[in-house]
Amino acid sequence: MQEYLLLILNKLGVEATPLIILIITLTLIILLSVIIHLFLHHVILGSMKKSEARNHKFWRQILIDHNLFDRLSFVLQGIIVHVISSHWVVREPEVLDIILLCAQIWILLYGLLSLFALLDTLLSLSHMTKVASQLPLRGIFQSIKLIAAIFIGILIISTLIGKSPTLLLSGLGAMTAVLMLVFKDPILGLVAGIQLSANNMLKIGDWLEMPKYGADGAVLDIGLTTVKVRNWDNTVTTIPTYSLISDSFKNWRSMSESGGRRIKRSIKIDATSVHFLSPEEQQNLQNSHLLTSYIKNKVTEINQFNNEHNVDLSLTINGRRLTNLGTLRAYIGEYLKAHSGIHKNMTLMVRQLEAGSEGIPLEIYAFTNTVAWVEYEGIQSDIFDHIYSIIPQFGLRLHQTPTGSDMRAMVERLG
């Protein structure tokens, strides 16, 4: 190119000094770079953006939003400048070395940024698929970005000092301890992310409970160093990724996938209200369609036992008899079986726990047929509303610590 310029200038009668030729050559390179830039960014990319505005294709919009094509065009500009300069500035090796050095650094930097944009694009596209959206890809991509940044940084330094990258890599051995300290969290996060993904321990959208960090809500993001959890009060808690491996946490995903959510709650019965059912009470409770079969079969079983053992029923303590507490347990069990909100294929029982100073705990253990929080609480509340209201029908009382009104009523009676 410089020889061609020299020939043209000589024909025009212009004194062609090496400096003038160099200036003209550099001017042409700059003009060519500007033309290429305008063509790539304003013509090609401009037409793509206009086409996207008309077609509204989601994946093309993602490519544009993350500036992937913009950064690739800068890489292409650097390559073109590198190639042209190596052919046009051959007579000035010192200037050529500077231009080529700048072009190489330009290519490396925008190549790294293009890789970042590509990974961001893939991450956004992965959210469109159900399987990929559940994987902790953000942490993996952040790890790739970190490794790529270190690698490109080494290449840039080796380019500036004119040494082989292997020389720098060999010198990193002495810096291993320092690098481990500086990049401790990313390294631990990378290992934790791999384990979480490989063992299917945590996914985006899982209900995570980790009291140590005040986390109780849905997982928003699994990053290289932190995991974001949106708590049920709409606050956001960040947890170090590696702590999910070193500490214990509760993942409610299995509950959500099972289709049933557990009810495990007790009511406290006043022990002094427990007694044997009288014939009148039996007859009254037998009118309940949920207890008709139970009382009939239980009375037959008890009478048969007492007759076989010649039990003297003149004393209350002799033989077997129906109790109001046992009948209440049977009633609640039948009520839960008939309830439309209870899962019929999961554990269902009503059991009596060890009595204490707060009465006799009667525990309801069952599963709803929904895992939605609002629906679950509605079903649970409906069940216990009914249980609290029917307890007096069995001659039982709930245990309750005396309140101020109870104490005033007692004083009034004594007065």
Write the topology of this structure.
Elements: H1 2-12, H2 18-55, H3 58-65, H4 68-88, H5 93-126, H6 130-133, H7 137-161, H8 165-171, H9 176-182, H10 184-198, E1 207-210, E2 215-222, E3 226-231, E4 236-240, H11 243-246, E5 250-251, H12 253-258, E6 261-269, H13 279-286, H14 292-308, H15 324-338, E7 349-352, E8 360-368, H16 373-390, H17 404-414
Antiparallel strand pairs: 1-2, 1-5, 2-3, 3-4, 6-8, 7-8
Helix pairs in contact: 2-4, 4-5, 5-7
Describe the structure.
This protein is α+β, with helices and mostly antiparallel strands and 415 residues long. The protein folds into 3 domains: 2-196, no CATH class; 200-252, SH3 type barrels (Roll); 261-406, no CATH class. It is built from 17 helices and 8 strands. It has helices at residues 2-12, 18-55, 58-65, 68-88, 93-126, 130-133, 137-161, 165-171, 176-182, 184-198, 243-246, 253-258, 279-286, 292-308, 324-338, 373-390, 404-414; strands at residues 207-210, 215-222, 226-231, 236-240, 250-251, 261-269, 349-352, 360-368. The strands form 2 sheets. Strands 4-3-2-1-5 form a 5-stranded antiparallel β-sheet. Strands 6-8-7 form a 3-stranded antiparallel β-sheet. Helix 2 packs antiparallel against helix 4, helix 4 (68-88) runs antiparallel to helix 5 (93-126) and helix 5 (93-126) runs antiparallel to helix 7. It is rod-shaped. The termini are far apart. The mean pLDDT is 81. Residues 185-253 form the Mechanosensitive ion channel MscS domain.
